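Lab notebook: predicted structure, single chain.

Context: the supervisor wants predicted structures on file for every construct in the current expression panel, including those that have not yet been purified. This is the next one on the list. No modifications to the sequence; it matches the entry in the shared construct table.
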Amino acid sequence: MGLTELSDAPRAVKSLFRSVPIVAGGLALLFVLAVTLGADPESRIPALQDAAPPEPIMPIPPAPAADPLKLALGERLFADPRLSADGSRACTSCHDMRTNGADANRHDKALDGSEVPFNTSTVFNAALSFRLGWEGKLRTLEAQAESVLESPQGMGANVDEVLQRLSAAPELAHQFKEAYGHGPDKANLLDAIATYERSLLTPGSRFDHWLGGDPAALSAEEQDGYQLFKSIGCISCHQGVNVGGNLFERQGIFHPLVSPPPEIVRVPSLRNVATTPPYFHDGSASTLDEAVRRMGNAQLDQTLSDQQMKAIVAFLNTLTGTYRGAAVVAASP
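Prediction complete. Output recorded below exactly as produced.
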């Protein structure tokens, strides 16, 4: 059929001919795309090609904004022995805020002198974990505070009795009224403590400086340790802003790790880990070197060489942050 006969052609045929410029244009576009995608990688868009994958660990953020009156009240309550049944201990008895936010004991003592079953975890950066406690049974800082207040292994107190003691202290009752508009009650007691605990973040580690773009913040050995930490699989459980604290894991996947239950624990944070011996929920590893070797064997089926262990420990030491401008340090035995 000639083009001169198009006027006599069926409508479908006319439509086909009219679409030829569009089809041709589309084929030309596909040709350009094919040439572009098939070009040498060096000639592609630099922003797409040069973008590095994000690191699986993120820097600690600044502490959240908080009402200064509630914050000051929470800090005072954290150190107040009137929160315990017999007035013999405060939160700071097991969580030393001058050092590592915990203590150096394998097991702390209950009010009756018996050992508590789990090693005391640091309160630093606890607010960044998705669950609280070794078994991860508690979802909020308020719930954790209430649990510790009432537990015989913690403060062994009755909350109503604690509130009576606090209300009987004029200065403290006034501080509650200034912060909350009325005297002590269960809700504002727990809120004040939780507000303080949310402030207990430790930014400023050398590793966070490295994440922020300072290549000199880590030595070559520390960077090698981080790469090894990722390549052998430690990063699968220890990642995110808290380098852990965001999932549950079975202990002893390949080989036994610890003997007492629970078998499944909330993965602990590795922030400030170099300052928080002893390690594991039973406190059975007295040094970080020992903990790294045992974890490699039990959780990853890896027998680490001395050089590998040393490199990973060097990296872990870079996770030590600062609190109120001073480096976090280990507690005295």
